[in-house]
Amino acid sequence: MTVGANGSVSSSRMVHICDGRHRYERVEALDGRPRVQLRHNDQLLTLWPDNKQARSESRDPVAEFPSLAPGPALALDNYEPAPWLRDRIAGHEADVLLLKPRDKLRYAQRLWADRETGLLLRSDVIGPAGEVLESSAFTEVQIGSKAPADLVLGPMRRLDGYKLVRAPSERTQFEAEGWVIGRPVPGFALVSCSKRPLMDADPQAKPVQVLQSVFSDGLTQVSVFIEPFDPQRHKQAMGTSMGATHTLSSRQGDWWFTVVGEVPMTTAQQFPAALERRR
């Protein structure tokens, strides 16, 4: 798979296996620093072979292997589908659908789906002027071949020589953590909430918890990270962009917000203001 944004392109080799009860995935970065991600259901292991580092964590499976975010009905509330076209991607016949946003809070998207399986073969995020902000596509696809699960489970079990760091996470409820959505960002609904300790926190101190909430409009997702404000680490508010992805960090009272998503910056800026602390 290749991903292009802002003139840069990265590529990876991906294997996805589903036996009906379990899902396995292996993603190997082909550019830059060697990295392999191995996933079994919600368990994710990231390996850096060059320095023998390994990171184990649990992931809430909100976004499945190339597919749309949950909530097709919600997507149609926020996007207007254009007529289907046909194309050929990575040797496969594909249906092409253009989804135009009904407001300025989100980007248009053009999707290529395999005609037989529905597998998402390519997706483009399109800006207001019709420019392609980001593109993800498979260049070679084999569907239906039976790869052994040990291709994923083997390396997950054989970690001799690796330094393993565990990043525990816990699913939780937004309200149970003392937060409420006071002014929802139009079209976005909360679909996942979890908390985890900061990995760079002082091991002698009480762990600092970061709350991650994922919002979806049925097609794209925005992650909001909330942590206690720390003047030693949180120097100043900032905003960055990479292709269609915008990242915004800002302070709100005693809390520090980081917003990441494939939405315009003006949309990202609405999320900290939408959330209220109740306790």
Could you explain the architecture of this structure?
With about 280 residues, this protein is mostly beta strands. It is built from four helices and 22 strands. The strands form three sheets. Strands 1, 2, 3, 4, 5, 6, 7, 8, 9, 10, 11, 12 and 13 form a 13-stranded mixed sheet that branches. It has a seven-stranded antiparallel sheet with strand order 14-16-17-18-21-20-19. The chain has a two-stranded antiparallel ribbon with strand order 15-22. The longest helix is centred in the middle third of the chain and has 8 residues. The chain is globular and about 55 Å long.
Largest sheet: 13 strands, mixed
Order of helices and strands: EEEEEEHEEEEEEHEEEEEEEEEHHE
Total beta strands: 22
Summed up, the helix count is 4
Shape by Cα distribution: globular
- Coarse structural class: mainly beta
Terminal residue distance:
45 Å
Contiguous low-pLDDT stretches (5 residues minimum) are none
Task: Please give the share of residues in helix.
Answer: under 10%
Question: Could you tell me the radius of gyration in angstroms?
Answer: 20 Å
Percentage beta strand: over 45%
Mean pLDDT, to the nearest integer, reads 89
